[in-house]
Amino acid sequence: MPVDDPSRPLGPSTRSVHLTEQVDPTTRSVIPPIAANAAFAYPDVETWREVALGRATGHIYARNSNPTTDRFEAKVAALEGAAAATSFTTGMAAISTTLFALLSPGQRAVTVNDAYGGTYLLFTEHLPRFGVECEVVDTDDADALDAAIARGCDLLYLESPTNPAMKVLDLARHAERAHEVGATVVVDNTFATPINQQPLALGADLVLHSATKFLGGHGDVLGGVVAGSEELIHRVYAYREIIGTGLDAQAAAQFLRSLKTLGLRIERQNANAFAVARHLEGHPKVARVVYPGLESHPQHAVAAAQMSGFGGMLAFELVGGDPAVNQLLPRLEHAYLAANLGQVETIVGPPSTTSHVELSDDERRAAGIPDGLVRYSAGIEDAQDLIADLDRALDAVDA
Ligand SMILES: Cc1ncc(COP(=O)(O)O)c(C=O)c1O
To answer: Where are the domains positioned within the chain?
Structure first.
């Protein structure tokens, strides 16, 4: 099994295929069998107790741990360059369990307003109910973010690129400011994936994902995962096992299969999103395209410095605003109108029906999300077909 050896760096697809994989020692299966199992049986009480008390390795009950979820966690940890990881039923379970595990009443958390809608609501509605002071800063104002951190911060939560407006935050800069005041830095890396961006290497303490998106990549399984140091992951895990938000073995096995093609899929999705973004940028009916790889992106230099690929996601606005969007979307033949992203299929939708469906129009505007924005998640189709499809549909939109 290849290991992560910095003196002999492996390419993203080799990492995706081989890191942490081991032939199953009992069956010699290349793909170890799924441990579809609630409880683990022991020959005697003493052996059982040693495992239960953590003095011997093994599993007791699958809400706490399971060999298949262990394999998924080890793989994500390796891909993110982390010592450990723990996994969850959904991305929101990963985010909420992490935040509630690490924050206590009287503490202060800082985040940005253009984060995924569910995350935004955790900071604006739910954490404050438990006495956590939350400051939500304009994502475009890096100095305001540093100032909010300097006012006192126990936890800094960042997402980059953001969902849906594709804003990019300077992760190393803000992580450094946060560490100066003793904060723990958590980064949602869902949009970038570990192939394009490694937040831990940029200074984050924890990196998390909605695995439902690119890690799964096929839209047939939900999950979440957080990776970081043994100490922090143990704190999150200890809370996860009590509130019961852990991933199940069948889902973990689906993710393990998907991760084998992560490098391959992301390479294609990066290329497709870039080609579509460049094409739309020159289209007369398109008012604005937001893609971190374009020189026109306000944080392009930051993205180029901290990302090795610019990702499969882009956003755009049409000259004709919302009415034009409503004309365009149903005409697309190679894109689903659906509330997911990161799949092998191209998926489009406005934030009002996808990432920010729980927010009112006013809340969405307050979060800095313009009306008429379209989120485009490039699949693995052929770029020329995606572009031709967009052109055909745009032809039918009123100028
Ligand atoms: C960036 C980001 N983080 C977290 C989530 C939540 O993930 P899940 O839907 O798996 O709970 C999403 C979902 O769209 C997301 O886009």
So the answer is: 12-260, 262-395
pLDDT tens-place string over residues 123-153? 999 999 999 999 999 999 999 999 999 999 9
| Choice among 70, 114, 188, 205 that is catalytic | 188
Domain 12-260 has CATH 3.20.10.10: no
Q: How far is the CA of 115 from the centre of ligand 1 (A)?
A: 10
- Reported as a single tens digit per residue, the pLDDT across 17-76 is 999 999 999 999 999 999 999 999 999 999 999 999 999 999 999 999 999 999 999 999
Which CATH fold would you assign to the domain 262-395? Aspartate Aminotransferase, domain 1 (3.90.1150)
One-character DSSP codes across 67-115: HHHHHHHHHHHHHHT-SEEEEESSHHHHHHHHHHHH--TT-EEEEESSS
63 is catalytic: yes
Phi-psi bin for 321: left (phi > 0), alpha (psi -120 to 50), beta? left
| 219 Cα: distance to centroid of ligand 1 (angstroms) | 12
Residue 163 tokens, joined: 């969902």
Can you tell me the distance from the alpha carbon of 312 to that of 272, in angstroms, rounded to the nearest whole number? 7
Instruction: Give residue 351 CA to ligand 1 midpoint distance, Å.
Output: 13
Place of tokens 């990196």: 207
- Give the residue whose CA is nearest to atom 8 of ligand 1: 91
Torsion of CA 376, 380, 381, 387, to 10 degrees: 40
CA distance 226 to 200: 11
Query: How many other CB atoms are there within 10 angstroms of residue 238's CB atom?
Result: 12
The pTM assigned to this predicted structure is 0.97
